[in-house]
Specification:
The chain has 387 residues and is α/β, with parallel strands linked by helices. Helices cover 28% and strands 26% of the residues. The protein has helices at residues 18-26, 46-52, 70-76, 91-100, 115-128, 142-152, 182-185, 189-192, 194-204, 343-353, 361-379; strands at 7-12, 33-39, 66-67, 81-84, 104-108, 132-135, 159-167, 210-218, 247-254, 259-265, 273-281, 284-292, 303-314, 317-325. The protein has an eight-stranded mixed beta sheet with strand order 8-9-10-7-11-12-13-14. Helix 1 links the parallel strand 1 and strand 2 (33-39). Bound molecules: nicotinamide-adenine-dinucleotide. Nicotinamide-adenine-dinucleotide is lined by residues 13-18, 39-42, 45, 70, 85-88, 90, 108-109, 135, 137, 192, 340.
Length: 387
C-alpha cells in the first residue's frame, strides 16, 4: 500500500471500548485515514460517535455512515480497515466476514469466545492476505515498552520466572449481561483480563509456547462479597445469568525454560485494583504495576510504577541498586488510555509498509491456547494440560 493513499476505516460496536477505536482512528485523519462508517445494533449508542467528534466538528450525517446491521456494513460500507469491538461471541463470525470481504481487521481481545473461533479468525486472515492486528493495548504502554527495551539490553541475564496479575475488588463488567454468560464470553476474568497479562508476558519474551498449564477457577462468593462496580458504566442486571468464574489462577512451564504465573480476578478481597507484571532473571528483576487507588477502573487516577532491582560490584563490594521509574518524576511511564489509541497508528504503519503489526491475530491465538488449556486444567481440578 503506497504511503499516503487514502484508507477508509470503520468501527463495529462502540459500547465500552469502541470509543477508543473511534478516537484512535480520528487521530489519524491527517494521515490519509477517513472514518467512513460505523456499525452498532443499538441506535442509542450514536451519542458515543458524537462524543468522539467533540472538538473536531459535527459528526457525519447518519445516512451512508451509520449501519445497524453488520451484514449491511460488510457488504456496503466500502471500508478498507475495520475495528471489531463486539461481544466476544461475535468476534469470529464478524471477523471472518470482514477478512473475506478484503478488509484489514483490528480485533479486540480476546480473539474469540472459543479456541476454534480464534483458529478460524487466523485462517480467514491468512486467506485474505490482509493485516490482522490485535488490540493488545497494554503492549503499547510506556512501562511495557520499558520492559521490552530492558529485555533487549540484556538487563535480566537468564530470564527465569515471569508473573502477571490483574485483580479487581468490584470489577465484574455488566453484571448479568454478556460478559458473565459463558456461551457468549467464553469465561470470566480468565478470558477477559488474562489476555492483557499474557500479552505482556508472552510478548516480552517474543511469544514462546507453553509446554503445559495448570490452573484453578474460583466462583464461590460469600454474601456481601465484592462484585459489580463501575465497569460497563455500572450497567447491571443483578437478577441476570452469571455462570463464569470470579477469579482464575494459572501456572505454566514455557518452552523457553521460563516459569509463568498468572492471576486474574474481577472480584477479590484486596486493598485496591492492581495490574502488573514481574520479570525475574539472574541479573535483575523488574516490577511494574498500575494501581487504581480510589475507585476500581478510574483510569484518570491510576498510578503506574516500575522498579528494576539489581546488584553491582563497586569498589570491591556488591551494592544493591534499585532504579525506580516514577510517574511523579518520569511522566513517560504514564498513559491514561493504557495504549488503547496506539494500536491504530501501528496498524496503519504495518498496512503501509506491508509488514506484520506488533500485535496480531496470531498473538491472540497464542494467548487463547494458554487460556483454553487453563480452563481445561481447571475443569480437571488443576491437572496439568498441554495446550
Ligand atoms: N482492550 C481493552 O482494554 C478492552 C476493554 C473493554 C472491552 N474490551 C473488549 O471489547 C469487546 C467489547 O467490549 P465492550 O466492553 O465494549 O462491550 P459492550 O457491550 O459495551 O459493547 C458492545 C457493543 O456492540 C454492540 N453490538 C452487540 N451486538 C451487536 C450486533 N449483532 N451487531 C452490531 N452491534 C452489536 C452493542 O450494542 C454495544 O454497543 C469485548 O471483546 C471486550 O473483551 C477490551
Amino acid at each position: 500500500m503506497a504511503a499516503g493513499s487514502n484508507l477508509k476505516v470503520g468501527v463495529i460496536g462502540y459500547g465500552g471500548i469502541g470509543k477508543f477505536h473511534l478516537q484512535g482512528w480520528l487521530n489519524l485523519r491527517d494521515e490519509g485515514v477517513t472514518l467512513g462508517a460505523v456499525c452498532d445494533a443499538d441506535p442509542s449508542k450514536w451519542s458515543v460517535v458524537e462524543e468522539a467528534y467533540r472538538g473536531i466538528g459535527p459528526a457525519p450525517a447518519k445516512e451512508g455512515f451509520l449501519y445497524t446491521s453488520v451484514d449491511d456494513f460488510v457488504q456496503n460500507s466500502g471500508c478498507d480497515i475495520v475495528s471489531i469491538c463486539l461481544p466476544n461471541f461475535l468476534h469470529e463470525p464478524v471477523g471472518v466476514k470482514c477478512f473475506d470481504k478484503g478488509m484489514h481487521v483490528l480485533m479486540e481481545k480476546p480473539a474469540a469466545n472459543t479456541l476454534a473461533g480464534a483458529q478460524n479468525i487466523v485462517a480467514a486472515c491468512k486467506r485474505s492476505g490482509k493485516v490482522g492486528a490485535a488490540q493488545l493495548n497494554n503492549n503499547y504502554t510506556p512501562t511495557y515498552e520499558l520492559a521490552e527495551g530492558m529485555v533487549d539490553d540484556g538487563a535480566f541475564g537468564e530470564l527465569q520466572s515471569v508473573s502477571g496479575w490483574w485483580v479487581r475488588r468490584n470489577g465484574i463488567p455488566f453484571y448479568g449481561q454478556w460478559f458473565g454468560i459463558k456461551e457468549k464470553s467464553g469465561g470470566g476474568p480468565g478470558i477477559d483480563l488474562m489476555p492483557h497479562v499474557l500479552g505482556w508476558l508472552l510478548g516480552v519474551m517474543d511469544w514462546p509456547k507453553a509446554k503445559w498449564v495448570s490452573a484453578r477457577a474460583f466462583d464461590k462468593a460469600e454474601p456481601g462479597a465484592p462484585g459489580y462496580g463501575p465497569y460497563g458504566g455500572g450497567s447491571k442486571n443483578p437478577g441476570g445469568k452469571f455462570d463464569v468464574e470470579r477469579r482464575m489462577q494459572s501456572y505454566a512451564q514455557l518452552e523457553n525454560g521460563v516459569t509463568m504465573n498468572l492471576e486474574a480476578a474481577w472480584a477479590m478481597h484486596i486493598d485496591q485494583e492492581r495490574m502488573g507484571f514481574r520479570l525475574v532473571g539472574s541479573k535483575g528483576t523488574l516490577a511494574v504495576e498500575r494501581v487504581w487507588p480510589i475507585n476500581d477502573g478510574d483510569d484518570a487516577k491510576a498510578i503506574d510504577t516500575a522498579t528494576y532491582y539489581t546488584t553491582r560490584e563497586k569498589a570491591g563490594r556488591p551494592w544493591t541498586i534499585n532504579k525506580s521509574f516514577n510517574p511523579d518524576t518520569d511522566p513517560s511511564t504514564r498513559d491514561a488510555f493504557m495504549g488503547r489509541t496506539k494500536t491504530q497508528p501501528e496498524m496503519l504503519a504495518a498496512i503501509r509498509a506491508g509488514r506484520a503489526p506488533k500485535t496480531s491475530v496470531d498473538h491472540l491465538l497464542a494467548i487463547q491456547e494458554v487460556i483454553e488449556a487453563s480452563y481445561n486444567s481447571a475443569a480437571a481440578g488443576g491437572e496439568p494440560v498441554k495446550p
